[in-house]
Specification:
The protein has three helices and twelve strands; from the N terminus they run ααββββββββββββα. It is an alpha+beta fold.
Length: 296
């Protein structure tokens, strides 16, 4: 009896295997239509996949967008840094080129001042409240700077030394409205015209050359230079050019508006002009001669 049941089970197992193999073979055949169980399984699987794939794709796309955004942010950050570095470099190059140009012009100017000993200096301070009045330079009495010495740039006259300390000096600019700030000047016309630089028009940013003869023919663009009289300013230092002429309030003289040759707004490198010993000895000799003549 047990042997019978064993044989029966073996037969059932073999039949099941044969049926399973047959079904698998049947399923693997190319068919135009699927059986309803296969259709059910396939449709169910597709529906589940469609439900799951949408949020998965959305999350995956969102993460990818975040990564792209992060990459874009980093790239923009690097580009901005490069732009900032480039702007800083350009500003530095411009500053160095400007400084080099000013220094070269000053060196060229030193050669033309044969009778004077220029002392090169740098502006170290300037008060916003007295911008047109004063500047402070980094050379003082210990460097040979003295009161009333002329101060120039490579372009022309800017003022004179007002006071000194051992290591700095205060320079009174030609644009100062101090009543005592006067400069003897020549207007270079067909016939030289003498006048005095006194006063400054802040609105027009022009110097005033006063005391010119009322009948003198003055034209725009004519040069104005120092006379060299008085022993403070070197002779023929450029002051500026004529831009306009008006009669004075009494009609006895003319006043010319002068545009300064030197850039009074942007002062950096300057020179203090010190007379050489030859010039000083010559002036002293002239003064002694005048004194002897008066005595006789």
């Amino acid at each position: 009896m047990p042997q019978f049941f064993f044989n029966k089970r073996l037969i059932m197992l073999l039949v099941s295997i044969i049926v399973l193999v047959a079904l698998i073979g049947f399923s693997l055949r190319e068919r135009e239509e699927l059986t309803w169980p296969e259709q059910f399984v396939k449709d169910s699987t597709s529906w589940v996949q469609s439900i799951v794939s949408r949020p998965v794709n959305y999350v995956a796309g969102f993460i990818e967008n975040l990564q792209d955004l992060q990459n874009t942010y980093q790239e923009n950050k690097e580009l901005k840094k490069r732009v900032d570095d480039m702007a800083h470099l350009e500003a530095k190059v411009y500053s160095l080129e400007k400084e080099n140009e000013e220094l070269q012009e000053i060196l060229d100017k030193r050669e033309s001042l044969a009778d004077y000993e220029p002392i090169q200096a740098v502006r170290i301070a300037r008060s916003p409240e007295r911008w047109n009045e004063l500047i402070i330079i980094n050379k003082g009495a210990s460097n040979g700077v003295e009161k009333n010495m002329a101060v120039i740039t490579s372009k022309g006259l800017i003022g004179k030394v007002k006071s000194t300390t051992p290591f700095s000096a205060t320079v009174q600019l030609v644009s100062s409205i101090d009543p005592t700030n006067r400069i003897s000047a020549i207007l270079q016309a067909d016939k030289p015209l003498y006048g005095t630089i006194e006063g400054y028009d802040k609105k027009k940013e022009l110097l005033l050359l006063k005391g010119l003869p009322y009948n003198a023919k003055i034209e725009k663009g004519q040069n104005v230079v120092t006379t060299g009289m008085g022993g403070i300013f070197p002779k023929d230092l450029p002051i500026g050019k004529v831009v306009d002429v008006v009669p004075d309030q009494f009609g006895l003289n003319q006043t010319a508006y002068i545009k300064p040759e030197a850039n009074l707004y942007d002062l950096e490198h300057v020179m203090v002009v010190k007379k050489s010993m030859v010039s000083v000895d010559l002036e002293e000799s002239l003064e002694d001669s005048e004194g002897e003549e008066e005595g006789n």
